[in-house]
Amino acid sequence: MKKILLVLLSFCLLTGCQKEDSKIKEEKEMFLVLQNESYEVTLEKNETVSKFLTLLPLSIQMQELNGNEKYVYLDTALPNNPEQVQTIQKGDVMLYQNNCLVLFYKTFPTSYSYTKIGHINNLPDLDSDIVEVTFK
Fold first, then answer.
1. Cα 38 from Cα 46, distance rounded (Å)
2. pLDDT, tens digit, for every residue of 65-83?
3. Res. 17: pLDDT tops 90
4. pTM value?
5. Is the preceding peptide bond at 57 cis, omega within 30 degrees of 0?
6. What is the pLDDT of residue 100?
7. For residue 80, what are the CA distances in angstroms to 34, 55, 56, 90?
8. N or C: which end of the chain has fewer CB atoms below 10 A?
9. How far apart are alpha carbons 12 and 6 in whole angstroms?
């Protein structure tokens, strides 16, 4: 009888852990909504992302810069761990300093340092007219 209870208890605990793991995975999803189209953001695993996700959903007006990026200064400072990325890839979502969210829509070399947040694999070509985006 004790063995059966032990097996049942173990099963319940393991099942609970699996549900918690799937909940964590759900919380680690993020999408960018741009002109009524939704694009999945593949997220980095870091403290910046964890804190940024607590701000979602977030609809923001982004500013154009240099014909290759959109940026906005957030009201909340995020933990950061900047690194020299050498090359920006189209679709990169990064943090500059501790409160500047940047969405890159062209690939180019850079000497600046950023904290990686994620990447959008199928980001369409953008132009300077597109400024409102939603992260959810």
1. 23
2. 999 999 999 999 999 999 9
3. no
4. 0.77
5. yes
6. 98
7. 26, 15, 18, 21
8. N
9. 10
